[in-house]
Structures are given as structure tokens and as C-alpha cells.
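In the previous chapter we treated chains in isolation. Here, by contrast, the input contains two separate entities that must be folded as one system, with a combined length of 628 residues.
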Amino acid sequence: MGSRASSLLREEDIEEIKKETGFSHSQITRLYSRFHSLDKGENGALSREDFQRIPELAINPLGDRIINAFFPEGEDQVNFRGFMRTLAHFRPVEDNEKNKDPNSGEPLNSRNNKLLFAFRLYDLDRDDKISRDELLQVLRMMVGVNISDEQLGSIADRTIQEADTNGDMSISFSEFIKVLEKVDVEQKMSIRFLH
Amino acid sequence: MWISVVLALTVLPAMFGLSLGFTDLYIKVLVKTLEWAALRIQRAQKVPAVPCHLPNGIIQKGDSSMEEEIVELRRMHPHPLTGGNFTLCDTFYFCKKGIESIVEDQVTQRFTSEELASWNLLTRTNNNFHYISMRVTIIWGLGVFIRYCILLPLRIILAATGLSWLVIGTTLVGILPNSNVKDRISDLLHITCYRICARGLSAKIHYHNKENHPKKGGICVANHTSPIDIVILANDGCYAMVGQVHGGLMGLIQRSMVRSCPHVWFERSEMKDRHAVAKRLRDHVADKTKQPILIFPEGTCINNTSVMMFKKGSFEIGKTIHPVAIKYDPQFGDAFWNSAKYSMVAYLLRMMTSWAIVCNVWYLPPMSQQDGEDAVNFANRVKSAIAHQGGLVDLSWDGGLKRGKVKESYKEAQQKMYSSMIVGISLKPSDMM
């Protein structure tokens, strides 16, 4: 019913999530409400099916990859902490000004971490390299049936050629960062959360 | 003796459409109480007075198109590729859109009850409101007692009276030969029953633009929130109902209703045959002596914050459509029937233990299909008019998504659009989503 949603979230939990992710108190309670409404099985965790029930996500060409990003290696349930940790990547960088804590290490929504999130969408086997195959897979997801294999292949080849500086025919994370260094990652990979 | 007094107090005013003023007084007292409670809650809340569930959402979304966003992404990319425009940062667009939809989407929120900005002293809507003060708790407790021990039994009696009146009355009228008198008595019977039922819900309905009331031989379409919509609309006029044949109590009511005036009840098997359905509806409206048909083109209950896709079936019949917009005030009771969560009986009990049902009904001017306009566009035009009048969000998404999966063709349309940005395929207008 959602009526007891926030009473299941304790203040200590909220404080911990606040420290780890940088979200404000009210943002956390509202996102908890959202988490709870997606959790049809009411077991405190989301499965892949719970995400796929969102029509706008189901029609997103990269929907499956995005859903994957929430689930740690080999798991198929994500709890609220994991949910928030993943969403934290999309907090705007400006919001960090209030929570400047020198001991907290690199925030989840740093430019680097945002780029890492995008990199991992390609790098399915987590070997820290985007191979030609992995690139082709993502391309195929985005274009559907509208482009031939040959054309797609040459696009992939050109992309790797552009980015690959050490000649290993794949794109490492540092090569990825270099290619995108002029792109406004902070703005393009951020969502404006209302307070 | 008591029974006759009760009957007199309920049935007679209902027959003549008079109100004894109880409901109005009750609503006035209720409004004052809820305002007082809202003030106390605001004062007591330590978190600054921003309710946790704002109606304007959790995030602020931009409204630029895929093309605009990706072009902007690429502008910052060092060297545009020749003969095939792809950049590694293209994924950012889909990524951001995907995460936005996970945080907040336009569809899934329509199938659960609307969140209130301020608590209305019902346990069921208590989302974030902890213990405020002794006084509020006492009023809440008093409210529980009044609603469950006084109002509920009263309302159940009223509902039972209304329904038995309908069943007995229509069966008796059915015996009469067809004539004008029979029709008038039948109309009176139906309206009386619905009025009694409305009192059984403490319903306060405000009808606007009565001059646009649906005429005989027309089709009335409205947005759907709950089975109570029928009671709300039928309090102000007689309609021919359309629906599936049920068993049990519903079936009994259906069979008796049809004895006194024509309604359109379909067997489950008939519903699958769209042509048969269309034919029966067409035959009904062709007869100018029959009451206007009442149809809910969304096909399912939505939570009254938006209007979802109208199924084109009713708009293909080719007659004048009389749109009606219904908007409930969520402060007094949540009218939405979440059929996944509550059975019909549980739902009716919830309705009868709410404070009241307060709603506005707007009759819109009749609309007809224009030359060269197909049924889908006509349906969308009517839907927009209803959404605009009722202050509801106009969505193209199918209400069937409550239970079913979204069609692959929407994803394919996005893929096609993106592909055109890579290799410059020319797009036909029909490919646009």
C-alpha cells in the first residue's frame, strides 16, 4: 500500500546513505518511496522484472544494460543501498558543495565515476577493455535492424581506430577518458533531483 | 415503524432529487477539521514544511528530443567521423533517459493511488506522518470511530436499500407493456437507486455545463477511475450501460436492469469479436428512443491523475460523442480502484469508510469525427479535451500496461530514429513515435 514505506527506513540507514551517496534526507525518503513502489514482491529488493515493468525503460534500446548496472556481479536482487549507490552516479556535481568531507574519498558522482558507469555499459565482461565485439553488441542494441552488419562493423572499426592509442585493438578506460575529455560529462550524465 | 421512517427519509428525497442537507453540512465540518489538522501537522514537523511527496515529482526532466540531445553531445566530441556518425558518448543520452525513467516514469504511477500533499486523517493515506500531537491523534481516533461505527453501517444500509429498490422495482416494471409511461417509470427507478447509492457513499457531486448533457442516441465517453463512476454519472441522467455479463449479485442486478430498459451486456466470448461488439453498439445508438450509451474507452481504472489511451472501438461507430470529465477530490477519499490490490468488496468497504466522495463532473460539448480524420486521431482529440477540462495529464500510453508488456514497436521506433542519426537514412513521417 505504500503507507508504511518510510517507516521501514530507519534514521541510521538514512544517515549512512546520506554519507555514502550525498543525497539529502528528503531525497532519500522520496527515492525510498519510489523503490518501494517498484518492489512488487514487497521483499525489500528489486529484481530485473521489477525494472522491466517500467514501460519507458522497457522501450529504451539500452534498457537491459542499464538495469544490469544495478546488479552486482552474479546477483539478481538489489536492495535499497545498492539502488541508491547506483543512482548516486547521476547526482549533479554542483550538489557536492554542501557535503565537502575530505575523508570521504572520491564521490560516486565524480566525472571519473560517471565515465566509469558509461564505460561499464560497453565492457560487459569487466576486463577493463572494450573489445570490438563488445562495441558491436552495444551498437546493435541501439540501432536495431536498421543497419547492416558490414556497415556497423566499419563504424566499430573506425571508432576503435580513433580511440586506440596503444594499438591493442580495444579501448581501455584511460583511452575512453581521453576521447571524451571535451564532452560535458558532468551535465550529460546528471539528473536534476528536486529537493 | 422505524423502517418506514428510514425508507421515507431516504427514498422519497431521492425520488424527487431533493437533498436534506446532511451531506453538505457534513462536508463543511470535515473541511474545517482537515484544515485544522493540516496546520498542526505543518507546525509540528521538524523537517521544513515541504511535504515529502510533492506533486511535481522527484526530478526535473528536460524536454528536448533525441536528435537535439545527441547532436549536442557530439558537438563536444573532438573529430566527427566521416561516413557514419557514431561517438562513444551517444550512449549517454539513453543512459540518462533510462535512469530518469527508473527514478520517475509517467506510467507506473498511474496505477496506484495518488499521493496527498497533506494527511487527511485516514490511516490508509498515512505515508510519512508520524505522531504529531495528542490532539491530532484524538481527532484521528474519533474519525476512525465515526467512520467505522456510525457511517459504515448507515452506508451499508443505504446501499442495500438502493440496490434492492432497483432489483425489485425494475422486475416489477418489466412486467408492464412497452410504453412511454414504462420508460418514465424506469428512468425514475434507476435515478432513485443511484441517488440512494450516492448517499450511501456520502457523495457530493458538482455537475458543470448541464446544457451539454448527453442526448438519446448518442455515445457518452468518460475517463475511468472506479466502478463508482457509474453511480456518479447516473445521478444526473439515465444511461444505457455497456459491460460484460457477470455472475452472482452483479449478474442479478444486470438481469433485472435490462428488464425495464435496454442495456448492452456482452458475454465474455462476444467481447473478443470486435465487429459483433461494434454492431450491437451501432444498433443501440441507431434507435433514438434508447438512452445514450456510457463507455469508458480507457478500458481499465486509472488513478484520476491522468487520462490514458482511448481505445478506438467506440469512436468507429460514427455517431456523436459526448465527452464527460470526472475529477475526484482526493482529500476526502481515494476513489481509485486498484484491482490488483483490492477485490470489489474490499474496495467498496474502503469507499464506505472514507470521509466522503467529492467530485466534479464536466459535460463537454459534443464532438464528431471530422472528414479525413481516422478513429485513432478522433479518440485522441476527445481524450485531450477531457484531460484539459479535468486538469488531468494527457498520456498516450495504454492503460493495458497495468497488466501487460509494452509493444516492441516503440523500442523499434527509437532504434530507427537513432540509426538515421548514424547513417542518415531518410525517415518517413509514419516512423516517428
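The radius of gyration of chain A is 19 Å. The longest strand of chain A covers residues 45-46. Compare these points with the single-chain example from earlier in the chapter.
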